[in-house]
Write a structure and sequence with these properties.
With 255 residues, the chain is α/β, with parallel strands linked by helices. 45% of the residues lie in helices and 13% in strands. It has one domain (10-252): Rossmann fold. Bound molecules: NADP nicotinamide-adenine-dinucleotide phosphate.
Length: 255
């Protein structure tokens, strides 16, 4: 679909070792990009690298595992990517963490974990990527969630942090538009990845039939939207939150 669309483009993707991020890594590489992807754990990054080399040993790709909230680690990473490939065209802030804990049982540490990764990680990576993206007239794509649009019945830090991702996307798009950098986000509905496999059973049981298109999303559905927003076809699009959700709306859900 995006054959050669990203030839010579340099793409950095967080949360690229599994799920939606891994589908995006595969998609951008197939479209001709050079990709640096990030994971939480060294082993998952290595496993993803091995899988990519199986697909095509000539792919230009490498992986790192950094703390996405660490200012110096982010600075060092972008320096390393520019030293290797000369520039950065696309940053995809995709790493994220869910939480379904009921409010009275929610510990401060769980709040901090989820909000830090989803919100501060997105801010930190964007802050240090912007100088590079201004040079290439590049773009940022954030992974939000429909939870950030509609809220959720449990798990406060997740919808709160994803709503913040949407607000950061719109604000950053506004402030960077005249510098030539586009910023958009995607709000996936329910996508069949490890993150969903770990939801409580009651949540999973109610999902399939409540989606108007009668199926969960696949990681590739979201990766395709990322590639569209990163492509020249989206050159006049900035500040949007694109819902990719099979028509999901919370009032389709039983209480
Ligand atoms: N799946 C859904 O239904 C759904 C719906 C709406 C939005 N989303 C959003 O889509 C994004 C990707 O979700 P997914 O379902 O593909 O997730 P996933 O399959 O659980 O993969 C999560 C990715 O994020 C990385 N990651 C997790 N915690 C991290 C941390 N503390 N620091 C750095 N990296 C970390 C993981 O690295 P390791 O492999 O090393 O653990 C992995 O690459 C998230 O932002 C999520 O909130 C997902």
């Amino acid at each position: 679909m995006f054959e050669n669309a990203f030839k010579d483009k340099v793409v950095v993707i967080s949360g690229g070792s599994r799920g939606i991020g891994f589908a995006a890594v595969k998609g951008f590489l197939a479209g001709g990009a050079k990709v640096c992807f990030l994971s939480h754990y060294e082993e998952t990054g290595a496993a993803a690298m091995a899988a990519l080399k199986e697909i095509n040993p000539d792919y230009e790709v490498f992986t790192r595992h950094i703390d996405l909230c660490d200012f110096k680690a982010a600075q060092d990473l972008f320096k390393e990517v520019e030293a290797k490939w000369g520039k950065i065209d696309v940053l995809i802030n995709n790493a994220g963490k869910d939480s379904s804990t009921w409010i009275t049982k929610l510990k401060q540490s769980e709040w901090d974990d989820v909000v830090n990764l989803n919100m501060k990680g997105t801010f930190n990576m964007s802050k240090y990527a912007v100088p590079y993206l201004q040079k290439t007239k590049g773009c940022i794509i954030n992974t939000a969630s429909v939870a950030g649009v509609y809220g959720t019945p449990t798990g406060l830090p997740y919808p709160a942090s994803k709503a913040a991702v949407i607000a950061m996307t719109k604000s950053l798009a506004y402030s960077l538009a005249d510098r030539g950098v586009r910023v958009n986000c995607i709000a996936p509905g329910v996508v069949e990845t490890d993150l969903v496999k770990n939801l409580p059973k009651f949540a999973k049981d109610s999902i399939g039939d409540t989606i108007p298109m009668k199926r969960m999303g696949q990681p590739e559905d979201i990766a395709n939207a990322m590639m569209f927003l990163a492509s020249d076809a989206a050159s006049y699009i900035t500040g949007v939150c694109l819902q990719v959700d099979g028509g999901y709306r919370p009032n389709n859900q039983p209480k």
